Each structure stands twice: as C-alpha cells, then as structure tokens.
Amino acid sequence: MNERVVLRHVPPGVVHPPGDAVPPRRPAFRMAEVLLACGLTRERLLEEAERAQALGSDLIDLGLAEGWIDEENLLREIAARLDLRFLEVTPPAEPDTPLASALRLRSYRIVGEGPGERCVLAPGGAMIRALADGRLTAPANRVALVTRQSLREGLLASQGRRLAKEATRTLPPRFSARWPETVRPWQRGPLVLTLLLCVLGGLGLILAFPALLTALTPLLLAPVLIGGAVTAIISALASLRPVARPPDLPDAALPAYTILVPLYREAGMIDTLLANLARLDYPRDRLEILFLLEADDRETGEAVRARQETMPGNVQVIVVPPGEPRTKPRALNVGLALATGNLLVVYDAEDAPEPDQLRRAAATFAVSGPRVTCLQARLAVANAFDSLLACRFAVDYAALFDTIKAGAARLGWPVPLGGTSNHFRTEALRRVGAWDAWNLTEDADLGIRLARLGHRIEDLPSTTWEELPPTLRPWMDQRTRWLKGWMQTLIVQARVPRDLLGELGPFRLLAISLTGLSVVLGALGLPLCLLSLGLRLSMGLPFLEGPSFVLVSDILVIASFVAALVLEIVPPLIALNRRRSWHLAPAVLLAPVIYILISVAAWRALFELARDPFLWRKTPHGLMKRAGGLGRLRPTEPGGADERFAGRSRA
C-alpha cells in the first residue's frame, strides 16, 4: 500500500502524513542505528538493502517477514527512542473497531477512557519510517507499540465471540447445510429408526417380487450412473486441450498472499509443515501465513509455541474462538476474517506444494478476467507405495485432479473443489460467503456455489503432494465424511430447483447433477445392483429376452458396465501417462473391492447424516512410511513449463 495512504488512515492525532506543513513534535532517529542496535552488521544491511530493492520490497518489511529482524527487539528500540511503551500483552480493541481496517492499518484504539495508551500500533516499514522522520504527534502516554501477533490477539480478545458466531453464519439459509440444526438430539433416534425401517421394507419388497427388482434396478440407477461416467470421460478428454501458460510476474508486481493452514491434532506435523512452507518461492514480505488452532487442542498449541521463536516473522498463530460446529470450514472463516492478502490459498498440515505454485497462481490471476475467482491446483498422493489402498488412492487422485476436474474447468462447468490448494481472490471469496461451516465437504459446496453466482474456477497445473490414509480405518472414516458431505451438498443445492436452473443453465446443471448423483446413488445403489444380479442368475433368467421393459433394462445393464469400464481406463491412463507412472496402472484392477468399500462408507454416511450430521471424522496424518510412487507432471502437460503465453486473457 502507498505510504501516504497508510499514514493518512492512522487514527487521527497520531501521525502527520508526509507532505503536511505541521512540524514534527518528536525527535527523529536514524533507522540504520536502530537496525544496528538490533544486532545487524553494516555489511548485512547493505546486502539485504540490495536484495530488497531487487525484489521491490521494503527492507524493514522483508527483514521482519524473514526473521533476520526481530520484531520485538526492533519495536523496543524504537519505543525507547520515542519515549513510548512497548506492550507484550495488547489490551482489547474497542468493541466497534472495524476489523478489516484495523488489520490493514495495523492499528486500533483500545478500551478505556482514563490516562494511558489510547492507541496501539504494530508498525510496518512505512509507519516505522514515519516514526523515524519525526511525524509522531500524539502524546507519548497515548500511543503504544505492539507486535503483529499481539495486535491480532487484541482484536480476537474483543471480537472473538462475534467472529465465532459470524463464522457459522456466513451464508443465507438456502445456501447452508445447517438445516439439521433444527433436529433435536431426541429426534435423531426416531429418524435413524425410520431410515432403518425403510431399508428393511425395501428388502421385503425385493424378496417378495425378485423378478420386478431385477428389471427396475437398472431402469432407476443406470441412467444416472451412465450419465455420471460420460460426464467424467468428457471432462477427462477436455483436459487434453492445451492451455497457454501465462508469463511469470516480476517480483515487484507480485500481490500480497495469505496462506490459511487449519490445524487440529497435528502436533507431529508442525516441523514438516514449516519445512514445506519454507520451500515456497515468494517474497516473504508479501506472504502472510496464518496457523488456525482450535482453543482446546493443547498438544498442537504447545508444539507450535515451542517453535514460535524460530518461526519466520510472517507466520502468525490464530487461536480460533470456541464454538460449534467444530469443523475445518468454521476455522477457515475465522482465518479469512483476519487475512490481509489480495490472494488467498488453503493448505493442510501435510501439504507439500511445488515451490512456484503461488507465483503461477498470481500470474494466472493477473491475466484472467474478474470472473475467474478461484484456481484449483492438482492434488497428488505422496505415499502411493505405503499400501495397495494408498496405491489405488494415488490413481484415483491422479484421474480426478489431473483430468476430470481440469477438464471440467476448461469446459466452464461447475468444479467441486478439492479440500486444499484452492487459490482465491480474497475479496471475491468474502462476497460469496466463503465456506459453509456446517458442510463436511465445504470445498465441493463452495465450488458449486461459485458457479451459481457467476464465477469461474480454472485449473492450476501445479502439484500439491498430500499424505493420504494407507490403512482401512482412517480411509473409511475419510470416505464416510466425504460422502456425508456430498449428501449435504446435494440437498442444499436442490432446495430451490428453479433458482439452480436459472443460475447454472441446463447443460451445466446436468453436468454437476450427474456428477454428484452418480457419486452418492452409485455408492448407495451398489448392494441393490449386486442383489439384483444375484437374483437374476439364481432364477436363470436369460439376458436380452422377454418383455420390452426387461430388454431395455438389460441394455442399460450392459451400457452401465461398458461406461464403468471406460471410466476406469480412460481418465487414469491419461493421468498416469502425464506423470510417467505406468507402474501404478495395475491398481485399476482393485476397482471391485474399492467400490464395495465405498458403498459401505456411503451407507454409514447416510445413517450418520440422520444421527450426527456435523460429526467431523478427523483424518490422521504423519502415518506415511515412505514417499514416492507417483511422478511429477511432464513439462509437456497442458499449461506446463515448456508452454509459452499466447498473449490472450481468459474471461
């Protein structure tokens, strides 16, 4: 932000903007002397000043962000020279303090009318130079200096309860999954019992009229399953279309970026997380990293605090105010309220993004039209060799993110986002209501909502490596949560069908409907399909013979089998070819076993939706035995490193 703009918005009577005729009332000090007093040498200062100039960065902001200037020491030195106080613990802000303004200006008025400090400042480079130039005009006992971490803590102390409430109410009822909130705990038992009776009643009908079942099951399920498979295959083929890579932005043109990292029971991942984030190639003075901790997660909090003194200065720790539901999207909404970057990305504790991912995202946003408000990076499994389950997971992720989601984005279809590595224009994300705190697949829900509100999601051909569950129990818990979230999302999106049709149009509505319904109904309907097939074989009924509706049913069965076979071959093979990972292709043969496991997870999710709709089954991390298995994207991947920008913007 321009220096004059920053200083003009500081609380009145504290600092004179540059250019004002008012003479300084405070003695000026030499900034170099302060930095030398903080332990820097003249040689280091000259070296860093040259580097800051090359990056287009402010020397002080760069030093604070990278950690070679200690913020507390610097502010203590400045406070001593100006007869100000430095506060280790920041008093709460006034209740009506505008949060966004306080964060942007790094200043707010504190509670109280008596003598003493009335305003706290967490000065950055521009403000510190103003102080050095003698432009402080407020009495010394009315201003105090604090660190950026303390500033946020003071804001949370006064506005934490409001933030906690707002984080669960970012959306109007028609867009939120919080409708089961009206179901009282005592009502959940009868709901589960009703659902169980419906299932038993269905089984009774099957046993009473087996021949009818064998014909009706394909007629009811096959169109949705075939449609979902065709939609996915079309998306995968669309991903083959080349997309030009935009030119990298010069360092000075890179925008401010915020990284949100929600952490819950991740004490063992902190060192890995810090190492992965340190590899990101982005100017640290324009990179804000917010660790979002739950208030009762003492173990993770202690692990973070134990490393806080050695963490870079651009890493801030936010303790999310207590509240319900205890979900990742609620924490993300709190983080979004405290974010100051122009762009924003979500990473999980185990994520290892490619070093240039933020630069590529910033470059893509720069050449994209304003409707492009989100980029989905490619997620890939880092531990494919840990087990057969992890190997199959790696193939599924490659097919999903490298082909199906990438192709859907190129076709302009709604894209259900992955849970991490979503890059956003921050203000646009706020305008659409951000994440639904009550939805267990808040990522998929947000992707569809963006499309409904006229925004576009683009593919970002940059990989983020993730550790995924290598054993059955955590895998089953994760799939249960995903499928329960998909059920929530389908219910939410279908509340007002006429609005949905008007906002998406018929073709995009058909694409996303087939995608979502095939996921849920395919998993729930698998036992019915297997039972129907078993009855058909046991009764000795021949295929492609009998009445016309039986003939149509048999044709749909064959078409479903062919569609499923093509779906199991085309997207995975395209993806494995791009990553030169043909050695994982045999994992495709695990499809029958995986489908059965997914069906178990779906029925578990359905009963859980009635009994405990907001239960968030946490996926454990740190279980990876060895990394590897899946290759990097080829340089010739559409949008990859060898392609050059063709000079056209994308709307």
Number of helices: 22
Report the end-to-end length measured between terminal Cα atoms: 27 Å
Main-sheet strand order equals 7-6-5-8-11-10-12-9
Integer-rounded radius of gyration:
28 Å
- Give the full name of the CATH homologous superfamily of the largest domain: Spore Coat Polysaccharide Biosynthesis Protein SpsA, Chain A
Backbone shape: elongated
Specify the CATH class of the largest domain.
Alpha Beta
- What integer is the average pLDDT? 86
Quickly count the domains: 2
Please tally the β strands and state the result: 12
State the helicity in percent bands: 40-55%
Largest sheet: 8 strands, mixed
CATH architecture of the largest domain: Alpha-Beta Complex
CATH topology of the largest domain: Spore Coat Polysaccharide Biosynthesis Protein SpsA, Chain A
Percent of sequence in beta strands: 5-15%
Structural class: alpha/beta
Low-pLDDT sequence parts:
1-9, 638-651
Features:
651 residues, alpha/beta, Spore Coat Polysaccharide Biosynthesis Protein SpsA, Chain A, 8-stranded mixed sheet, 4-stranded mixed sheet, 12 strands, disordered N terminus
Please describe the topology of this protein.
Blueprint: H1 3-8, H2 31-37, H3 42-55, H4 59-66, H5 71-82, E1 85-86, H6 99-105, E2 107-109, E3 119-121, H7 125-132, E4 143-145, H8 148-166, H9 185-208, H10 210-238, E5 257-263, H11 270-278, E6 287-294, H12 298-306, E7 315-320, H13 328-338, E8 343-346, E9 352-353, H14 357-367, E10 372-381, H15 388-411, E11 422-425, H16 426-431, H17 442-452, E12 456-466, H18 472-493, H19 497-504, H20 506-539, H21 548-578, H22 591-611
Parallel strand pairs: 1-4, 3-4, 5-6, 5-8, 6-7, 10-12
Antiparallel strand pairs: 2-3, 8-11, 9-12, 10-11
